[in-house]
Amino acid sequence: MNRGIRRREFLRHGALAAGAVACGAYLPYSAAGTASADSRIDVLLDEPLGLISPNIYGHFIEHLGGVIYDGVWVGENSRVPNVKGIRKRLIEELQKIQAPVMRYPGGCFADSYDWRDGIGPAEKRPRRTNFWANDEPKNAPSTHKYEANQFGTNEFMQFCRLAGCQPYLAANLRSLPPEEFARWVEYCNAPAGSTTLAEMRAAAGFSEPFGVRFWGVGNESWGCGGDFTAQEYAVEFRRFTTWVPRYDQKELSFVASGPNTDEWEWTRGFFEELLRKGKWQLDGVYGLSLHHYAANLSRGKIADWEKSKGSALQFAPIDWYELLREGQRIETMIENHWRIMGEWDTEHRVKLIVDEWGPWYRSGSEATPGDLFEQTPTLRDAVFSAMNLDIFSRHPEKVAMANCAQLINCINSPYLAHEEKFCVTPVGHVFAMYAAHQGGQGLRTVISAPAVRYDRDGKPATFWGLQGSASLRGKEVVLTVVNPHVSEARETLIAMRGGRVSSASLTTLTSTDIQAHNTFAEPAALEPQTKKLDVNGEELAMVLPAASVNKLTLALG
Ligand code: AHR
Are 262 and 297 in contact (CB under 8 A)? Predict the structure, then answer.
């Protein structure tokens, strides 16, 4: 039984037991490129990879633990600064990082959710048992166990509008009929005054349609979303997506519930069954979702997913490398699922939607005790997240959207909040740095660097030395590079093939402490540093510090 299946079993049965900042130093340009660089990055301006979808920098919120209540929603009468009940600081941060898309309301919660519970006058909305109630820790507030539905479709759309992102709704396929899916689409997208549901929307202050384009059809349908086989799910997918009203929306983009990690048989089985009725069925699928969470599993010592999870804050260099190795596997997953999809979808009309990703640790590092699945991200998670975003950027033709799990107070959060307290985590800083890639033309980069060598429980192990991605917008190249080595900086020669650099700046997120992280008490313990580089030429040399995420912004002239 592989690791993915262990997590799948866990979700199916719901059996949860429930520094000092150093910056990259710049070595002066050397015409001969003779700085004693041990590493080299060639950015090939003439080798475009395709447009990088802004949506790969997307986010995800679920009615789970402290994500919605306390994280996003504080209520209009709260002393926490808010806009129409939504945490103001969060809106401002999302605007800064140009958050493109937000997935909601789950996750596993989605397949237990009746969207009608979350509309209409707030005081009349029903209270329900939350999907995660049994998993909530003893000290969790009762609002996390019993869903009061104060945040529903209207509030979510308001949040998206304020933050400037597109909504991506996940529909309930396990416990509601297809008719209710069509009705939710009607509530969101029917023209003003056209139907009773459109009038109910207007009564909430939204006469114009929300115009929701992205619709997930179930979530993790192999586990908490119904425990289907791929073939059974494909039949349900067809049933749910046939004749859904389009209204004025040019396109509804349906995302099919896809595989967990490397479960190739799910992808194969889904397409095989879907196309049994003809190839035209592909027209109804925008994307196939892929989920991959990384824990410190690859040392293979512990069989159980929950017990295998490492600590978020206490870890040794080997745990750092092994976690990155587990995360890196997503690149092979993208390539292999894509290849399998191509056996049926030869023109590759269907894209991959990595709508849950991140490192997932055991409990113990919660900024707010009692928040289910909350963890405190460190520099390791910044490096992990940068590595993942670079992977998505390197496959722009395959990955159309990705959503980090989850936005606030849960798993790989860019932000942590509790009442009036708020901090941007190292992951949040990475999203801010990487926003510059959004909508750029991906460029092929060739990177050579000495591999990291380390001792893996008595056996020698290696990991790549540097990785990154590049994009071009107008006359500006953005190159992001991760140095995963916990203690060695990399002297790196960067060559712009096919252009000259007239000015450059370097932003670096690093620390001499690999466990560095931000807290409510010290929210600025780890922050990126930016400096201008004085350059003019085709090559530049610099030092990329140990354990760092770097963004070079290069103006071509
Ligand atoms: O992100 C937390 C949970 O992980 C989601 O609800 C589920 O889809 C996944 O297994």
Answer: no
